[in-house]
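It would be a great kindness if you could assist me with a short task in structural biology. I am sending you one protein, given as its amino acid sequence and as whole-number tokens for its backbone shapes. I would ask you to consider whether the tokens describe a fold that such a sequence might reasonably adopt. The full record is reproduced below for your convenience.
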Amino acid sequence: DIYHSGQVLRLFDENGFTVAVADITPAYTNSQSGNGTFSHRTRRVERFWRTFAYDRLDDVVVVFDQVTATKASFRKRWLLHSVEEPQIVAGGFSVRVAPQDRPGRAGGVLEAKVLLPKAASITSIGGRGLEFFVDDKNYDENGTLAEVIRKRGVTGPEPGAWRVEVSPPSDARDDVFLVVLLPGAASALPPHRVRLLESNGRVGCEVAGPRRTTQWWFTPGKNGAEIKVVAGEPAQSFQVTAPPLPGR
């Protein structure tokens, strides 16, 4: 039970869309949570649902998370780890990877649009002495980890040295996170236009890409998404939902 970290409840692959609907509550809470040992941890999370989607036609990643904490005071942090230092910009962040003189290393850029929570706090942590910094300690094996990695050369592991943290502006038991990730070549920023959607208790985003414009709708309290193609090809709509597991 300790090592069971989640379950994909629905996997959808059609019309260039790949969507995974998952319950990843067990990654944070299991039957042993609250028993006091480190592996069992505190009972912190009552529900964590994630919809992770990829639009292959326009190279867009949409991540929608619904999190219910055991207590409102357990502040949530949405993380993305990176090798290079992230740059925090209005409404999101970006990460660049420099080109290298070897195959498959032409460099690139990842732009992130943080749509929810509104007025989110977006910060970066990392760099020398803070590469693996958690709870006031840098877990770098007493300074030896960097040297071990260096000796393995350019074909060895690429250690992450940074992370972005996205947090809601105030404490609450229930929070939702909506982040759109736009990967691209190092020579140019992704041309997409992204905006937040809200209507009748639903939230979502519209992404106008080079090949089509899509709308992604999510209903808080339900796990899944409605995808609409509104421009670029004949209008289509897809429902990708999954029932909650017992006890969720």
Observations:
- The mean pLDDT is 90.
